[in-house]
Structures are given as structure tokens and as C-alpha cells.
User: Which sequence fits this backbone?
């Protein structure tokens, strides 16, 4: 059985090979260009199912170690996400170190594109934090190994609506398991973060007549979403105390930690944010102990990468993307049942199912 271990925590001191060895990365590339100031890391975790795909994130990391750990951890997450989504893609991710507002320009993006190109298609990129479709256009000038291109250029455009649809499917499946019905009508849903994904999710919830609670830093976004959808605004520090049926983290990671899990009053957690569990094992178990059903993030937020996948195949059409994303409903039920039957956590079951696919498909690819 393949083993993938994800112990690295941002901020931890790490040695060059220790984490790579533990998590089982195939290749990690350090990219440097003095002329443009580009400093990037491309992490290729696993290419058994296909080329490694995962977005590029630009961030002002406090230390190089933080960037290194983020690249390793995120690329491992993409291996699992792509596998459980049923895509023929491996897992990879890139991080560019620096303040996007100050450093990002055409030359830097194109220089990064040259590095992506140098990998000959082993790694395919797309947008992540602080990256736009415009950046993908610059990267495309230097390499064909890029997705997330604007619709005007034949690409899949902004993946957020598709991500939100997958989250919605995962939420309905978790509700079916927990409440006996997939209907969200009348359910109290706390959406943390009404950015791209959160707002599209609110739209789906509204159509089903859920009672929606929202929280965000941005007063403008709160005003817009509360007025448009009649959602109730909750102060950020109150999110974990809200009496609700479903908590949907759609802002930041690691909100499922000792303190917050102890406060939660919901029965289901299902949201789009990446890496919601601060510690996969410990906090996965803590949710089970608290009788809270957790729909694993990397499973239910796979709609965005599915959008990129269809672009990569050269056969993009929105209807195929939505059909594939809809399968998240069945997979979520499968994961939740697997966890129950195996006395496991949903997170561990989702990991096991993702790894099993890699192992099985890896074997059929071996030519005799
Ligand atoms: P976004 O930046 O558009 O939205 C995030 C929102 O969260 C912003 O409005 C921000 O103000 C708010 N926020 C930040 N900290 C907060 C806090 N403490 N409390 C409440 N609100 C807070 O990002 P997005 O594209 O909507 O992505 C949201 C999450 O989903 C991220 O974790 C992202 O990695 C993940 N994700 C996104 C996609 C996608 O297709 N966009 C795909 C997979 C995963």
C-alpha cells in the first residue's frame, strides 16, 4: 500500500530531504531568476495517474522553509484531490515567494512559465491564491502546460462556481447521511468567507431555502451578500458558537482545531477551504467523538480542478465538467459509509480511497 504522510506544519523547521522523503515526493524544483526577482518552488508529488497538476500560489512567506513546507503539503493534497475526483492527473503545486502586489509583472510570470515549460509537461499549472486568469495568459506565452485560461481564450475561466457546486453536492450528501435527507431546506448553514466560492455556495443554498449565516473580513462583501440573499451576518469571533446544522468553512485553513471543534454546535462540516483540519488525524478523530460529520475538504472542493482537467484534455465543455463534479455527491456518501464501516474518520477513509485508486490504476499502467 502506498503511504503518504502529511505531518509538515507551516512554520515548522524542516530539513531539505526529511519531509520530501516522508511525504514521498518525486521531484521538487527550486527556480531562481535574479533579473526578475523570481523565487519559486515547483513540487511534483506523484505522477502515477498522469501529469502533476495544481495551481500556483504567490505569497509573502516569512521564511523559505514556510514556502518549502507549503509547496510540499499542497502538492501532496493535490495528489489526493485529483485521485478521489476520478481525474487522470497526479499531484503538484507551485509557490512563488513574494508580495504579489509589489512583485508580480509580465516578465516575472513569463519567466515562471519558462520554468514550467522546462519540465516538459510533467507539471501543469493553474491559478491559486493571488493568481488570475491574466497571469495564466502570461505563463501561456512561454508554455502550453497551463490551464485556468480565460473563457475568451478557450479556457475554463474562473473555477470558483464549479468548486462551489462540488461543495454543495458534498454538503447534500453529508446531510443525507446525517439527517436522513439531502434537502437543505430550512437548514441553518454558517458560511465562513463570502469570497468567490462562498458567494456561489450561498447562491445554491438560497435556491434551496436554507437559512444562511455569513461571516467575512470584508464589510463590502457582507453587505452585498446579505442584501442579495437575505443572509444573516455573524461577527467573525462568533462563527464557532453559532447554533447551526452545517458549518461551511470557505475562507481559510486550520479552523478545525482543538479550540474551535470544542465550540462547534453543528452536526455537519462541509466547506470549500483547503486544509481545514489543523491535524488530520487528531482533529478528524475529535470531530467523530463530537458526533460531527465531516465531508473532507479535498474531496468536496475538487470541482475547480475538474474544471482545469477538462481544459487540459482539450475537450472543455461546462456540461461534462458539471456532470463529473456532481459525482462528488456519491463519493462523499461512499467515504462517509466507508468511515463508519471501518471505524475510521472520513478524512482517513477519503485518503485510503484516493490511494487505492492510485495503486490500482498504477498497476494497470505497467506494461509487461
Ligand atoms: P477568496 O479569497 O475569494 O475568498 C475568501 C474569503 O474569505 C474572502 O472574502 C476573505 O475576506 C474571507 N476571509 C478571510 N479570512 C476570514 C476569516 N477569518 N473569517 C471570515 N472570512 C475570512 O477565495 P476563494 O477562491 O473563495 O477560496 C476560498 C477557499 O477555498 C480557500 O481556502 C481556497 O484555497 C479554497 N479553494 C478554492 C477553490 C476555487 O476554485 N476558488 C478551489 C479549491 C479550494
Assistant:
Amino acid at each position: 500500500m502506498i503511504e503518504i504522510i502529511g505531518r509538515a506544519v507551516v512554520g515548522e523547521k524542516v530539513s531539505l530531504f526529511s519531509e520530501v522523503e516522508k511525504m514521498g515526493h518525486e521531484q521538487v524544483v527550486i527556480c531562481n531568476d535574479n533579473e526578475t526577482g523570481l523565487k519559486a518552488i515547483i513540487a511534483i508529488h506523484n505522477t502515477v495517474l498522469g501529469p502533476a497538476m495544481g495551481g500556483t500560489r504567490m505569497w509573502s512567506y516569512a521564511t523559505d522553509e514556510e514556502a518549502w513546507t507549503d509547496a510540499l503539503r499542497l502538492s501532496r493534497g493535490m495528489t489526493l484531490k485529483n485521485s478521489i475526483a476520478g481525474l487522470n492527473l497526479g499531484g503538484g503545486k507551485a509557490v512563488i515567494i513574494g508580495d504579489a502586489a509589489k512583485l508580480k509583472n509580465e516578465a516575472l510570470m513569463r519567466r515562471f512559465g519558462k520554468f514550467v515549460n522546462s519540465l516538459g509537461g510533467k507539471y501543469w499549472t493553474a491559478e491559486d491564491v493571488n493568481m488570475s486568469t491574466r497571469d495564466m495568459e502570461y505563463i501561456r506565452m512561454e508554455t502550453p502546460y497551463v490551464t485556468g485560461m480565460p473563457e475568451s481564450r478557450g479556457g475554463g475561466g474562473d473555477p470558483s462556481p464549479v468548486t462551489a457546486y462540488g461543495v454543495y453536492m458534498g454538503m447534500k450528501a453529508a446531510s443525507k447521511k446525517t439527517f436522513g435527507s439531502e434537502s437543505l431546506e430550512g437548514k441553518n448553514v454558517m458560511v465562513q468567507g463570502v469570497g468567490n466560492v462562498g458567494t456561489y455556495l450561498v447562491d445554491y443554498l438560497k435556491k434551496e431555502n436554507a437559512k444562511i449565516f455569513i461571516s467575512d473580513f470584508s464589510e463590502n462583501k457582507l453587505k452585498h451578500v446579505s442584501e442579495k440573499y437575505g443572509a444573516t451576518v455573524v461577527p467573525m469571533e462568533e462563527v464557532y458558537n453559532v447554533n447551526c446544522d452545517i458549518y461551511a468553512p470557505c475562507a481559510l485553513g486550520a479552523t478545525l482545531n482543538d479550540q474551535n471543534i470544542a465550540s462547534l454546535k453543528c452536526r455537519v462540516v462541509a466547506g470549500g477551504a483547503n486544509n481545514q483540519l489543523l491535524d488530520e488525524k487528531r482533529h478528524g478523530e475529535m470531530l467523530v467523538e463530537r458526533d460531527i460529520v465531516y465531508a473532507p475538504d479535498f474531496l468536496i472542493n475538487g470541482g475547480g480542478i475538474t474544471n482545469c482537467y477538462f481544459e487540459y484534455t482539450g475537450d472543455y465543455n461546462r456540461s461534462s465538467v458539471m456532470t463529473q463534479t456532481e459525482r462528488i455527491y456519491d463519493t462523499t456518501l461512499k467515504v462517509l459509509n466507508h468511515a463508519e464501516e471501518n471505524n475510521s474518520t472520513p478524512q482517513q477513509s477519503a485518503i485510503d480511497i484516493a490511494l487505492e485508486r492510485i495503486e490500482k490504476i498504477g498497476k494497470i499502467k505497467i506494461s509487461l
